[in-house]
Amino acid sequence: MSKRRLRVGVLDVESGHLHGSWFEEQLTARWPDLEVALKALGSRPRRAGRSGQGRRIPIREFYSEPIYRALVDGKIDIGVHRMKDLPAPLPDDVQLVAVTERKTPLDVLVTADGSILDELPAGARIGVSSRRREAQLNRYRRDLSIEFIVGTLSERLEMVTAGKLDGVVIAAAGIEWRGWQERVAEVFTAQVCLPAVGQAALGILVGAGAAEGLVEKLRFLNEPLSRQEVDAERAYYVALGAWEGSPVGGLARVKGDILRIDGCVCSLDGREILRAWAEGFPDDPLRTGERLAQQLLEQGAGEMLARAREEVGIVG
After folding, report:
1. Tens digits of per-residue pLDDT, 257-267?
2. Are 49 and 56 in contact (CB under 8 A)?
3. Which of 61, 142, 208, 214 is the 20 to 30 A CA-CA neighbour of 272?
């Protein structure tokens, strides 16, 4: 490799440290004499928005700014970040050189007694950390009490263990990174709850001026099918005009020579959900994602997102 020492930026959160350690293992297994210096970078706090009932609730941030700012300023050589939390499109001065192989891109339910969603009693308290999950769960079972929670994955799971909640809905990938699959009561199908775009994949980032040699050396981490799926999902998200934390779900999957992407746009209360799907060729993911967005926009997704944006008090 052109450099014997690489500075790698990760977010200073539980998942960031796991991702950084994995990345270091991948590089040093390939180049044993390489020194990888992990640098933990602070993430912005999550903002709060309003619900229709006046509650103050968190809005998931695309909190990648510390990573790409460090790349632009030359403080790190490489950034490692969850794809679902990267803005779409990326800033011009940052390039995405690899999308890693995805773990399970679906959401899961963790409950204290192992109950699945259909077995929970009316009024069961379920913790979520996104409007997308709240809306889809409300559509599936309006008799549940959905509560917004924040914290690391460990902290959210502890709320169930301590009896503060009957269950939490989280990303399957977060569970898999920690090897805690035995905690999962149910893996949601896409028909129950579509995940966030880019969920379960990591992005490997460098500055726009990075040496070509570095870029080429990192491409071994790029998984072509994952890249095609994530590219379709992000193209769909951009074409929708979705905003940070918006109630939008999307999942693309490549099967043989077909790429299929399913998407949904939800009202905040879950009473109205628009769904559609599109198919195309895996080597043309952007067009397939944009086609799905156009279908949803023709159904009124733009107006639904505008209403949701106004309800949560987001300006600009």
Report:
1. 999 999 999 99
2. yes
3. 61
Q: Which fold has domain 1-100+201-222?
A: D-Maltodextrin-Binding Protein; domain 2 (3.40.190)
Domains of the chain, by residue range, sit at 1-100+201-222, 107-187, 224-316
Give the sign of the dihedral formed by CA 136, CA 140, CA 145, CA 150.
negative
Separation between Cα atoms, residue 34 and residue 27, nearest integer Å: 8
Q: Could you give the CA distance from residue 53 to residue 43 in angstroms, rounded to a whole number?
A: 29
Residue with tokens 């709850």: 193
224-316: which CATH topology? Double Stranded RNA Binding Domain (3.30.160)
Burial of 1 (0-12, 13-18, 19+ CB in 10 A): middle
Same fold? 1-100+201-222, 107-187: yes
Taking the CA of residue 107 as centre, how many other CA atoms within 13 Å lie in the half-sphere pointing to its CB? 28
Q: Is 140 exposed, middle or buried (0-12, 13-18, 19+ CB in 10 A)?
A: middle
Note the pTM of the prediction, 2 decimals: 0.91
| Rounded Cα distance, 49 and 60, in Å | 10
